[in-house]
Specification:
0% strand; mainly alpha; 12 helices
């Protein structure tokens, strides 16, 4: 039982579920998906969880020494010595291969190829860059947003405008989200050499301004689906959905402004948890108004 628990910890299930959620909603938003087939949704979820879990496992293998030095990550299975590096690699390779196969066989190889590319970027580009330069956040935002393209490709068999709109949305969302996490965990991160905030000085007014800037950028991006014809605001349901999106954006901007004013960990934590709520609200609101 403890071994199963360790395998789950290796996959970072809470993070993986959030990532796969975006992929599933993007799949459902694709114009060719006109009926909700539960089996196909479950297969997409399973494939996505396995690929994401594989990337997270590799992340923990590569960062085992770093994880062992930080209080919040020291109990992870590889870092704590409960699981060997070799066992972790076997798990990562098997889960990644099965997940990519599921996406390719049951959906299409475009979605599978994007998933493999996302895994590579996260595990082998973003992960080592974290100790080199804060550009790691930019690089990490790409695989972080690719689940939207993966889901869209799985449903639409191509990378059309809607998929890129969703990719852009999740790409911009990650900056205030991740900088808030880096602010909260700054002491841990800086102690092991992670460079994840926009400046080397740590949490500063400049970082807070950046969170505001990106939360403002999310406003026009979240309205693009209505201008591109993905979603409609011409009926009651559509008006409710666009109202929810505007409210969510104001909520996110407000939290980032509060961070700028207060410049404390408590406010950064509110941005972090606020971003966790913001993403599903916007995605579900878009699905509600799908044309």
């Amino acid at each position: 039982m403890n071994k199963i628990k360790d395998y789950l910890l290796l996959m970072k299930p809470s993070l993986s579920i959030m990532v796969v959620f975006s992929s599933v909603i993007s799949y459902l938003l694709a114009p060719k998906v006109v009926e909700y087939n539960v089996m196909m949704i479950l297969l997409l979820f399973a494939g996505g969880m396995l690929v994401t879990g594989s990337a997270n496992a590799i992340n923990q293998i590569v960062e085992k020494d770093t994880d062992a030095q930080m209080k919040r990550t020291s109990k992870r299975p590889v870092a704590a010595g409960r699981m060997s590096v070799e066992e972790g690699w076997v798990f990562a390779i098997i889960t990644g291969a099965i997940g990519i196969f599921i996406l390719g066989y049951y959906f299409n190889w475009l979605a599978a190829g994007l998933a493999a590319f996302s895994l590579f970027l996260y595990a082998f580009i973003y992960t080592p860059l974290k100790k080199v330069n804060s550009i790691a956040v930019l690089m990490g935002a790409v695989p972080g947003a690719l689940p939207c393209l993966i889901g869209w490709a799985a449903g639409d068999d191509q990378l059309s405008t809607g998929g890129w709109v969703l990719f852009t949305f999740q790409f911009f969302w990650q900056f205030p989200h991740f900088w808030a996490i880096a602010w909260v965990a700054h002491k841990d991160y800086s102690s092991v050499g992670f460079k994840l905030l926009p400046t080397n000085e740590g949490p500063t007014k400049f970082t807070a301004i950046q969170t505001i800037a990106y939360s403002l950028l999310l406003v026009p991006v979240t309205l693009l689906p209505y201008y591109t014809g993905m979603c409609s605001y011409k009926d009651t349901v559509g008006l409710i959905s666009i109202g929810l999106i505007i409210f969510a954006n104001l909520f996110m901007i407000g939290r980032c402004v509060a961070l700028y004013r207060n410049m404390d960990v408590s406010s950064a934590r509110k941005v972090m948890f606020g971003s966790y709520m913001y993403l599903p609200v916007v995605m579900l609101a878009l699905l509600l108004s799908k044309t």
